Amino acid sequence: MTRTRTLRRVAVPAALVILAAAGCSSTTSKSSTPPATAPSSPTAPSTTTAPSTPAPSTAPSTAPSTTAAAQIVIDNFAFSPANLTVHPGQTITVVNHDSVTHTLTASSGAAFDTGALNPGKSATITAPTTPGAYPYVCTIHASMHGTLTVG
Questions:
Q1: Which of the residues 30, 64, 75, 121 could staple to 87 if both were Cys, CB 3.0 to 4.6 A apart?
Q2: Do 113 and 103 touch, CB atoms closer than 8 A?
Q3: What is the Cα–Cα distance from 116 to 138, expressed in whole angstroms?
Q4: What is the rounded CA–CA span in Å between residue 81 and residue 89?
């Protein structure tokens, strides 16, 4: 028997088993009967469950995103990411992984400032509510800079 035929004899049944198993592992239930977790009393009202996936919204959201936390890490005398885009009023955590004290301070005005951030410490700042680009620096180490974009 040739090598190709041997591979086919093994590969085709294996593929069918994998496809069958994948078809059985669906997490979506189309049953209208709730799973039996406890006996229900004859006087208990019937309940229905809402779909677990919310319907997509076509209206733009103005609220800050709660799905991903905004964070800037200071390490090796650099901000990472140096350029970050956030929602107006969003909270940003600044973490100092360096061995010296740093700041993250808006370059102009008083839009945000962590103050002195010692090694291993973190602080939070709040993004301005007005959209725009806000350059920032470490006031202790002027070569460290970045931009917070509020959109």
A1: 64
A2: yes
A3: 9
A4: 19
Q: How far apart are CA 13 and CA 22, in angstroms?
A: 14
Say if residues 111 and 92 touch (Cβ distance below 8 Å): no
Residues lower than pLDDT 70 in the chain:
1-67
Residue 77 included in any domain: yes
Contact 75, 82 (CB under 8 A): no
The tokens 């969003």 sit on which residue?
A: 90
Q: Looking at the domain assignment, is residue 104 inside a domain?
A: yes
How far is 78 from 28, CA to CA, in rounded Å? 46
10 Å CB burial of residue 123 (0-12, 13-18, 19+) is middle
CB 126 within 8 A of CB 117: no
120 within 8 A of 96, measured Cβ to Cβ = yes
According to the model, what pLDDT value does residue 13 have?
52
In a domain, residue 59? The reply is no
Domain residue limits at 81: 70-150
Q: What is the pLDDT of residue 141?
A: 97
By three-state DSSP, how is residue 70 classified?
A: strand
- pLDDT score for 28: 41
